[in-house]
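The protein record quoted in full:

***
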Amino acid sequence: ASGNAGKLREFGALLADLGLHTQPQPEGLEVDETGDTFAANARLKAQAVALATGQWALADDSGLSVEALGGIPGVHSARYADSDAARIARLLQELTEARALSPSARSARFTAALALANPSGEIVLEVEGHCPGQILEVPRGDGGFGYDPVFFVPEAGLPFAEMPRTLKAELGHRGRAFARLKPQLQLLLQG
């Protein structure tokens, strides 16, 4: 339940060993993300796509919450500005205005909420994954998408944009959420 090319690539790789075929949500289908949590928005998207297609739908709602900004951009991460570069610029500007200069003052967390809906739109699985980190003062790396160039993961000593895909899949919020979803999904597939 996404049209985001970056998310589709990540999910395609995560689902590959289960023998599942993934495809983007129908072109032109827009789901109003009116939830006030990542989980609520994931449910809305999964239900809408499942009902529109009559297929199983896995939805992700994810985003960045920055402590010094009171959790902003949060559920509005994708709508914080009109491009990745503009979102990063706005985030860095707001952190500067908040005088969040030290690494500890720039603590942040990526969250990914996943919801799986059956073809009738019923949510059958839900999980969340989190990745703690810090916002860098300047972007680094050219991999990934979104806020990846400014999201530094102390556990890896790298921003997402400099991580190999396998490491990002292991440590990242989406990978951690999927690790919680996968065993439940395997049971569902066997049933």
